[in-house]
Amino acid sequence: MVNRKELNPNASPQAAFGARLRSLREARGLRQDELGALMGYSGKHISAIETGRKTPSLPFSRATDVAFGLEGTGDTFERAWRELKHGALLEGFPEYVGYESRAVEIRLYEVGIVPGLLQTPEYASALAEEQIKRGAITPAQAHERVSLVAERQVVLARTPPPLILVVLDESCIRRPVGEPEVMREQLSRLLEFAERPNTALQVADFAMGARRPFDLPVTVATLPDRSLVFYAESAARGHVERDGRFITPILTDYHHMQKYALPQAQSLTMIDQVRKGTP
To answer: How many CA atoms lie less than 13 Å away from 159 in the CB half-sphere?
Structure first.
């Protein structure tokens, strides 16, 4: 083919996205304008994505998944887009964020820090600034992480909003992050979150001891088709699991933890006491 540009999928995540798009298109026997017509884009737009001259968008990625019947699989273009956009984040996390944005129910447990869905911008920035000081991330990566916190929280204002069940280890509310005012505002945000009709907030107090089933953060999201997605992470990587055989025991442990965590009323009293600096 005249003027056909050879693609190197190893050059960058964007190049890999474009090379895969071309490969699937040609495997279906489609010209660029034909695929564009299926997706609602021009053939020139398809060409620009394939050759890396244009960065794919989230709507484009989702339209690609529809065109190739990849929705609901583990290897979607939407997943590739999130990894492209949030390449500095833990492996697996960009994929999970895609599920989170569509979830109808989210159960999460966090240790040590307030989870991203509930963080104030100042709290998120304080965490990122400390990572910069340690040399763990660059200022650009810090900006990316703080921006993602705001992007994820759009789900809280969705109509209808998802049901969100949160259990926080007591360390989340007692570990100071940033200046005292940053922490006070963050604790106030937790109290406001708990007042929403679609939320529940409990504290797994230190007295729970060995009855606490998890040592690391855990999230289980329920998708519109009622399928479950489990996400967990260590210091080095994140992992997404969709096989119900492995998720059901996690869900059982989560319910066990809710049983022994402080009821919401007591949890909010504890949070308010910490916010006011009272024992």
So the answer is: 0
**Residue 267 to residue 264: CA distance in whole angstroms:** 5
181 and 264 in a single domain? The answer is yes
Q: Enter the tokens of residue 253.
A: 């442990």
- Is the CB of residue 239 less than 8 Å from the CB of residue 233? yes
In a shared domain, residues 59 and 160: no
d(CA 34, CA 49): 15
Give the mean model confidence (pLDDT) for residues 65-82. Answer: 83
Between CA 110 and CA 189 the distance in angstroms is 16
Q: How does pLDDT run across 123-182, given as a tens digit for each residue?
A: 999 999 998 998 877 887 788 788 888 888 988 988 899 999 999 999 999 999 999 999
| 172 and 75 together in one domain | no
Q: State how many domains the chain has.
A: 2
pLDDT digits (tens, 9 = 90+) for 199-228: 999 999 999 999 999 988 999 999 999 999
108 pLDDT above the threshold of 60: yes
Q: How far apart are CA 27 and CA 162, in angstroms?
A: 39
Yes or no: say if 121 and 186 are a contact pair by the CB < 8 Å rule: no
Strand-pairing partners, residue 166, are 108, 201
Q: How far apart are CA 243 and CA 185, in angstroms?
A: 38
Q: Is residue 54 located within the same domain as residue 115?
A: no
What CA–CA distances, in Å, run from 79 to 73, 96, 97, 117, 200? 10, 9, 9, 20, 29
